[in-house]
Design brief:
alpha+beta, 4-stranded mixed β-sheet, 26 helices, 14 strands, globular
Length: 704
């Protein structure tokens, strides 16, 4: 209802975007926040009768609220709220709507607003010019791209085949060419998108934070922590110390149970502390938290819930990757996880060796020295675009395969299965809560943690077949994760039951493919995981993220909430911001280094990896991801258009570094420091220094 206060206002009508919360146009908003009882059409505060409640500018809204402040406590409270929020507006002065028209304070506020707007417009024009130059460069590269696409046939036959299959599927389904996106590339429009997006989040964040508590929450983890062990530990502690990522938030809306209200801890800032070998802590000014998110989203694809097994199961199954085992090492009995199985043949006999991870160290162990203790139930499967949840059917089947050997009644087996499934839900829910925290604190979520198809399902509650999800996009998104169904001999011949085995004899047509088959095949089949993640993302429905984000186009939500899915060298170079020395000769050398060595090095490394045909989601092995993580803590980048202020500073510093020092990163400030002599512009020397610096900090967080 205060959108008109926040727009840049190049057009006077832009400001006419305010509604009184007690008016008829705000009914849906009141219902969402359960305010109908005090401000709805049956209340004394309601001001939407007789066609009133129209759209106003900030001055009109404040005039309306002021006229009713003496007779209506609700309008009085709204008036006070707006005056508090906008009392320290642009330039540290109040918004012009808070003052009498044409008095000196009003005139001062108008002057400040114009000056601040000019600054914003100037900056946006500069960025727009940069984008135009980039667009021109991309146009020049168009022909090169076409040649590379042709080259794809030989370099990456699988990828080329996927592109051809995608186009063929669209043709069979009769999907028309998608019209030009309605989402503008104008930086001014994205300023508005961002304002709406974060205003929606701020409203919901305020609801939870008002319930109980405030301030920063401290999280203490080990260097190079293992997410599986961390989740297991936090889950087991949840019942005792109310671990907020894992505890139940039942009774959120019951005032009598406010003692259980830990939702605010998921929305306020986190202060992550990493232990180092000297038992000191890295102080979190942003970098450690980003490192924490990188580790979570990198490792979440390997999450499991371990199920203890008995003697019969142990005797019937050989050890396999992922099993928790007891084993005998040279130093005694230990517990670890099998991470690899290797087999060699000697004298026509196979000898099996297991690589067991124990306390961060991998030990090679023979099978006869291993005793299986637990079997894993995987929570995610890997795709070409990232991680997606396992299906309900596969999770249930894997549990049954383990429990079938247990010597207990069917009733006890069912009870144990319910307990296992409940733990699985809690792990999924914790992932949803971490994603919610990223949204609430303006940290992008890794695109690898949720491919675009499921972004639409979970973050906008938009299923295949609905008008807000273009069918061309659906096919592209499913193709990206390798789930696109081949339709040769399927359309108008086979039924839904032929694919999902649910007794539905509906014939698959181009329409029912989207409206019936895809929702069942890729959404309903994963209800266990998706419902649990959604529960974490919405805090049991307290924050209705999907409904709120559904008003925004998918492209806007995806680019504001998630990282670039396939980061390129150009994406990284676009955010680099050099800070040169003042001395002219040194500056010239540094400019040469920045433009001709650093940029070219990033491009060359990316091309090398492309030739090796690395998968997109494999963030661990991508050099670009390692470089970005070294500089920022995150191993991925936000979209440039949705985060124009984001940058990685390359600081040339001759005072805090020596000529032979390795490059130093300050992730709290998104900065990489290099000595001003830039290794005498010796590229080979720079490469060696940078690679050594990245390798020495991989998996840990220091204070340099």
């Amino acid at each position: 209802f205060t959108l008109g206060f926040d727009v840049v206002g190049l057009n006077p009508k832009d400001e006419e975007n305010c509604y009184c919360p007690c008016g008829r146009h705000m009914k849906a908003w009141r219902a969402q926040f359960r305010l109908e009882g005090i401000a709805g059409d049956e209340s004394s505060a309601y001001c939407g009768k007789d066609g009133k409640g129209k759209k106003m500018g900030p001055m009109g809204l404040m005039s309306h609220l002021t006229s009713k402040r003496d007779t209506c406590p609700i309008h009085f409270g709204i008036n006070v709220y707006i005056r508090e929020v906008y009392s320290n507006y642009k330039g540290g002065f109040g918004h012009k709507a808070l003052y009498q028209l044409n008095d000196w304070q009003y005139q001062e506020a108008v002057g400040i607003e114009k000056r601040e707007n000019r600054k914003v417009i100037t900056k946006l024009k500069e960025e727009l010019e940069e984008e135009r130059k980039r667009a021109s460069e991309l146009k020049k590269q168009n022909e090169k791209y076409k040649k590379e696409l042709e080259k794809l046939k030989t370099v990456s036959p699988d990828q080329h085949k996927k592109v051809e299959q995608t186009n063929k599927t669209k043709k069979l389904l009769g999907i028309p060419a998608k019209e030009k996106s309605t989402v503008s590339n104008d930086p001014l429009d994205w300023l508005t998108y961002r304002s709406i997006f974060f205003n929606l989040l701020e409203c919901t964040r305020a609801v939870a934070l008002s319930s109980k508590g405030s301030g920063k929450i401290e999280i203490q983890v080990k260097q190079n922590f293992n997410l599986q062990q961390l989740f297991d530990l936090w889950h087991d502690k949840a019942a005792d110390d109310k671990t907020y990522l894992f505890r139940s938030l039942d009774g959120l809306n019951n005032a009598k149970q406010s003692g259980n209200m830990h939702a605010w801890k998921l929305l306020t800032d986190w202060k992550v502390k990493y232990e180092d070998t000297e038992e000191d802590m890295a102080i979190d000014e942003g970098g450690p938290t980003r490192e924490f998110f990188s580790q979570v989203f990198r490792q979440m694809g390997d999450l499991t819930v371990m199920v203890g097994i008995g003697k019969k199961c142990r005797e019937s199954n050989k050890p396999s990757v992922g099993d928790s085992v007891n084993f005998l090492s040279n130093t005694g009995k230990k517990i670890g996880i099998i991470v690899k199985k290797s087999e060699k043949v000697f004298d026509k006999k196979a000898k099996v060796t297991y690589h067991v991870l124990c306390d961060g160290v991998i030990e090679k162990v023979r099978q006869k020295k291993i005793t299986i203790q637990q079997k894993p139930i995987r929570l995610f499967e890997q795709t070409d675009e990232g991680y997606i949840p396992e299906t309900d059917e596969k999770i249930s089947h894997n549990i049954d395969c383990i429990l079938q050997y247990e010597d207990m009644s069917e009733g006890k087996k069912e009870a144990q299965k319910r307990d296992i499934i409940e733990r699985i839900k809690v792990y999924y829910r914790a992932i949803g809560r971490i994603m919610l925290h990223c949204l609430a604190t303006d940290h992008p979520i890794s695109a690898a943690a949720m491919p675009r198809f499921y972004q639409n399902v979970l973050f906008r509650k938009c299923l295949p077949g609905e008008k807000d999800y273009h069918r061309s996009d659906i096919v592209d998104h499913l193709s990206a994760i390798g789930l696109l169904t081949k339709l040769d001999g399927v359309l108008n011949v086979m039924t839904i039951d032929d694919f999902v085995f649910d007794g539905d004899d509906t014939v698959i047509t181009p329409d029912t493919y989207f409206t019936k088959l895809l929702p069942k095949q890729f959404v309903r089949s994963r209800d266990l995981a998706l419902d649990a993640i959604r529960e974490g993302l919405t805090l049991n429905g307290l924050i209705n993220i999907p409904v709120q984000f559904s008003v925004l186009p998918f492209e806007v939500v995806s680019k504001l909430a998630f990282s670039i899915p396939d980061m390129s060298a150009d994406d990284v170079i676009a955010v680099l911001k050099p800070e040169y020395s003042d001395e002219q000769i040194a500056k010239e050398e540094q400019e040469f280094f920045f433009h001709n060595i650093l940029k070219q090095f990033l491009k060359d490394k990316a091309e090398e990896e492309q030739e090796e045909n690395k998968k997109k989601f494999d963030v661990d092995t991508s050099f670009l991801s390692q470089f970005v993580k070294f500089c920022t803590g995150l191993n991925y980048l936000p979209y440039r258009i949705s985060n124009p202020e984001y940058s990685i500073v390359i600081e040339f510093n001759s005072f805090q570094c020596t000529p032979e020092d390795l490059p130093v990163a300050h992730t709290c400030e998104n900065t990489m420091k290099i000595h001003g002599s830039v290794y005498n512009n010796d590229r080979e020397k720079f490469e060696g220094k940078l690679m050594m610096a990245i390798e020495s900090t991989d998996g840990c967080f220091g204070m340099n």
